[in-house]
Write a structure and sequence with these properties.
Helix content: 55-70%
Shape: elongated
Number of helices: 7
Structural class: mainly alpha
Distance between the termini: 11 Å
Radius of gyration: 19 Å
Order of helices and strands: HEEHHHHHH
Oligomer: single chain
Strand content: under 5%
Length: 131
C-alpha cells in the first residue's frame, strides 16, 4: 500500500470518528475533537494497521495451504521475462514482506506454518507503531 493511500485512509477514518463521536463542549464553546483525542478513543488502533494485520493473516493461511491449491501456486509463482524499465509497480508480496521485516520476524515461513506463533505475530502487528 502506498504511503499516500495510507494517509488518505487515516484522514478518512478520523473524519468518520469525529462525526460519530461529535463535538466537545470545552470552556463554554463547542469544538472539533483533536487528533490526540481521537487516538485516545481508538486506543492506538487505526485502519491501516488493521488492514496490514489482515494481509498477514491471509499470508499465513496461504503458507499453510496444501501444495496444489491455486492461491498458493499464485503466491509462489515466478514470472519469467524482464520487467519494464520504468518505475516498477509494487506487488502484494512486496508490501507484506516489508511488514514482516518491520516486525522483525525471521524465517517467516516457519513461523507462518505454526498457527499459534503466527497469531502472536498478527496481534503484535495490530499494536506495532510504524507498521
Amino acid at each position: 500500500m502506498k504511503l499516500e493511500n495510507e494517509n488518505n485512509l487515516l484522514i478518512f477514518e478520523r473524519k468518520i470518528v469525529r462525526r460519530i463521536y461529535g463535538p466537545v463542549y470545552d470552556r463554554g464553546e463547542w469544538r472539533k475533537r483533536k487528533n490526540k483525542e481521537i487516538d485516545h478513543l481508538l486506543e492506538g488502533e487505526n485502519i491501516v494497521s488493521f488492514i496490514k494485520s489482515i494481509r498477514l493473516r491471509c499470508l499465513g493461511q496461504v503458507v499453510r495451504m496444501e501444495e496444489g491449491r491455486l492461491p498458493k501456486m499464485i503466491v509462489n509463482a515466478r514470472i519469467e521475462g524482464e520487467r519494464r524499465r520504468v518505475k516498477t509497480k509494487k506487488r502484494w508480496m512486496d508490501g507484506v514482506m516489508r511488514d514482516v521485516t518491520s516486525l522483525g520476524v525471521r524465517s517467516w515461513r516457519a513461523v507462518a506454518g505454526d498457527r499459534v506463533k503466527w497469531r502472536a505475530v498478527m496481534m503484535e502487528a495490530k499494536v506495532h507503531f510504524g507498521l
